[in-house]
Design goal:
binds N-(5'-phosphopyridoxyl)-D-alanine, D-amino Acid Aminotransferase, Chain A, domain 1, D-amino Acid Aminotransferase, Chain A, domain 2, six-stranded antiparallel sheet, 14 strands, 7 helices
Length: 279
């Protein structure tokens, strides 16, 4: 597999990252996941803007991103992925630092790594809907930064899978925030409800696109707190993300809901989202 590593496109086994890289020592880094749909990188500018925000928030120097599109195109071509959807993973850590110290040196040179992989769409989940779980959100208070410090996400997602659930949805003292790798929205009486942007959720690009679609199709949007006690009021629920796309939720484990199958607004949003991806 061809990868991008610190300015060069090279074979994966030629990459060597120091064990003193702060990404390894402290999870001191950020990432982005971008979708390639033949022949475009979906919402590339929005992803790059969020990447820059994440880097700025962590005071990691921003590497030159002027030719990022050409780099991504070359990675797709070299890996023979032009004709299939693919996931692009951009990882930037603060870089090598020795000796190990918590405080970072201003001269650390970021480690910049990009891979692409074929995307296998989960059509069954998108058609039939998925079951999710609910857990207390124990993450830090800067979930708007796409940091590689993902231990709560890793553990919650692991617990979800162990229990036959597709995603774990978090709440802070009852108020729903987001999933381990997705945002969430609900439909009630033909209106969309989703937790507001704050430091407690990632400003998802899929969420943004879905809200734009809602305004185009006259679906009123309510960015508002949603309590786990209100789940029974909703007619539809969906998880949203670059990899998740728009996936209907038909069951919250252990909660009483009226969700049974993917609803009409979910289907409309899925159809329109697909058009944006492939047209
Ligand atoms: N995750 N919330 C969290 C915690 C996420 O990790 C993600 C995306 C989202 C949705 O954001 P977007 O629509 O911009 O992909 C929300 C990526 C896909 C991942 O970690 O693999």
């Amino acid at each position: 597999m061809w990868v991008f590593y610190n300015g060069e496109i090279i074979l994966q086994d030629k990459v060597s990252i120091s064990p003193f890289d702060r990404g390894f020592q402290f999870s001191d880094g950020v990432y982005e996941v971008i979708k390639y749909y033949p022949k475009k990188f979906f919402e590339l500018e929005a992803h790059i803007a969020r990447l820059k925000n994440s880097l700025n928030s962590l005071e990691i120097p921003i590497p030159s991103l002027d030719n990022i599109k050409q780099i991504l195109e070359e990675l797709i071509t070299r890996n023979d992925l032009e004709n299939s959807p693919a996931n692009v993973y951009i990882q930037i850590s603060r870089g090598y630092q020795f000796p190990r110290r918590h405080n970072f040196s201003p001269d650390a040179k970021p480690t910049f790594f990009i891979t692409v992989e074929k995307f296998l769409s989960r059509e069954k989940e998108k058609t039939n809907g998925v079951k999710v779980g609910l857990e207390e959100d124990i993450r830090w208070h800067r979930c708007d930064i796409k940091s590689t410090s993902l231990i709560p996400n890793v553990l919650s997602k692991h617990r979800a899978e162990e229990n036959g659930l597709s995603e774990m949805i978090w709440h802070r003292q009852g108020n729903i925030t987001e999933g381990t790798h997705s945002n969430i929205c609900f439909i009630k009486k033909n209106q969309l409800f989703t937790p507001p942007l704050s430091n407690f959720i990632l400003p998802g690009i899929t969420r943004k696109v879905v809200l734009t679609l809602c305004s185009q199709f006259d679906i009123p949007v309510n960015e508002t707190e949603i309590n786990i006690n209100e789940l029974k009021e909703f007619d539809e629920a969906m998880i949203l993300g670059t990899v998740t796309e728009i996936t209907p939720v038909i069951n919250f484990e252990g909660s009483d809901t009226n969700l049974t199958k993917p609803g009409p607004i979910c289907k409309l949003l899925q159809r329109e989202y697909k058009k944006l991806c492939y047209e």
